[in-house]
């Protein structure tokens, strides 16, 4: 038996550090090769790291919440498969990268290595007795679904089950969380009974301070939150974009009544029976169509050695800004221009579920060409969003609500929304961005134009 040291590897995205989120093992636990031992958070994704050794967990060298540099030791394992003495995964004894083990020998670090990400073959832990009891009484849900509900702050008792046996599914939990998230900011924290409080300042050493009764403890007036993980990556990207690309925003109000009617018909259609349909689907199709008519909104400003250039993309990797429990993520749908309406709806649903479950990979967030942010789900009418780095435009869809609208000289109740957009003025001029937003608005007003 020998003591093996597992160091934090580069999981295939060029990272320099990661945060320890959750240890899945404790000292004394017995692990097998490829059992997940820890969950880490990189700049944009959660990654599960499997054990390269079979043996007994020795020491956890980093705590949950700690930020660890790549190459730093994070855990020791008393290995039962290697009697050659202490070793370190990820480095040889001279500090150079170790060669990956041959396929099939049981020592491959599943999920990363020189060959790129590989699908993990970790074992599913058996449900505990308590979890089995809970799943058979009241709400029926598997342990992973219960964990997802806890992570998203969802009360399973309030979720309508859709499973064949009456069980709550993953989609049920995520959909409920999505619907509830709009209302989470309604409650206002109480100010408390004390209108004022005095914070004593230490008196000079020579001063004589009369004794006084000790004051009851009070809640902290300020809180310090470390900037790391997704928040750190997002803030860096937004500052870079805001101070490098000159932003210009335009917007217009839209009668989206026919879009709402189309969404209602699609929901009732057998072809879309197993897919979530929302106005975002029509918005996505409208942006793709409008970007084809005004390609510069889908372009990018590139600073090259020979001078700056504008790169015009003849394809659309459609980004969707997603508010997740981990922060703002912007995964994109690759080659969205090639998808049918049904396939686009399925891709949007998959993107949303993956983001909310924290399974969005770095590759899912790279190479985007234009982004949609659906601020309407938070009850917002319009906004001036910041462009995603590497893109020239971002479109905001406001909430769709009934308002008085003039139709054929008469005021009628109609479903009205606001379409707004921010653009890189180095890449596109006012006429182009205005034409693009007008095209998007025309599709929301009359989706039948998509048939052309």
Short overview:
Helix content is 23%, strand content 24%. The chain is α+β, with helices and mostly antiparallel strands and 452 residues long. Strands 10, 13, 14, 15, 16, 17, 18 and 19 form an eight-stranded mixed β-sheet that branches. A five-stranded mixed β-sheet has the order 3-6-8-1-9, with no helix packed on it.
What distance lies between the first and last C-alpha atoms, to the nearest angstrom? 71 Å
CATH class type of the largest domain: Alpha Beta
Global shape: globular
Going by helix content, strand content and strand pairing, the class is alpha+beta
Question: What is the count of β-strands?
Answer: 19
Strand content: 15-25%
Under CATH, the homologous superfamily of the largest domain reads Chloramphenicol acetyltransferase-like domain
User: What is the CATH topology classification name of the largest domain?
Assistant: Chloramphenicol Acetyltransferase
Mean residue pLDDT = 78
Task: Tell me the domain tally.
Answer: 3
- Indicate the low-confidence ranges by residue numbers: 82-87, 90-137, 181-191
Query: What Rg is obtained from the alpha carbons, in whole angstroms?
Result: 27 Å
Number of H- or I-type helical stretches:
8
CATH architecture of the largest domain: 2-Layer Sandwich
Instruction: Estimate the helix proportion, in percent.
Output: 10-25%
Question: Biggest sheet, open or closed, and with what strands and sense?
Answer: 8 strands, mixed
Which series of helices and strands comes N to C? Answer: EEEEEEEEEHHHHEHHEEEEEHEEEEH
